[in-house]
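PROTEIN FOLDING TASK:
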Amino acid sequence: MSSPPDAPAPVAPRRRMTRDDRLRQLLAEAWRLIREEGTDALTLGRLAEQAGVTKPVVYDHFGTRAGLLAALYRDFDARQGVVMEARFASSGPTLADKAQVIAEAYVACVMKQGREIPGVIAALAGSPELARIKREYDVVFLEQCRALLSPFAPAGALAKAGLWGMLGAAEGLSSAATTGDITPLQAEQELAATIMAMVARG
């Protein structure tokens, strides 16, 4: 007499992700794809495949590839903003202290994201819509820096051109650090020196 077949193991009900949880999952998967395969490999269809969801789920969150890239930049900028605000608040009283904390925070944020963020920034620059989004975040960052550094300027104010030049230096130096052309410490030191020179010129 044969023994009765084993009863199937109960299957745990699958918990449905909240919209915010799903968004975080998709963004994490998108960052992984960029890190491993480059920005050009990132499409909504590929993201859906890698995340194990249907295409409509990804389209519902981002709409277009441009929307996905914008969401990635917002994700990066939000995390960068938290780090910078915390560091700015705890910085020392001198200009050297302020310049150093801006340089360290900026480079650290880019290094933490690795080689992915320069590719996203380059892709953002290719579309007027995405370039506008990046510019909005750049302006917020520059205003934070203006508030932190203006008290040290000879006339108590900083030139807009100088602030934009500082941002260009921050992006270029951070990018060079992620590719290994210079060390993060060299990027921080050069950026801090650039900031102090910009403030001294007023």
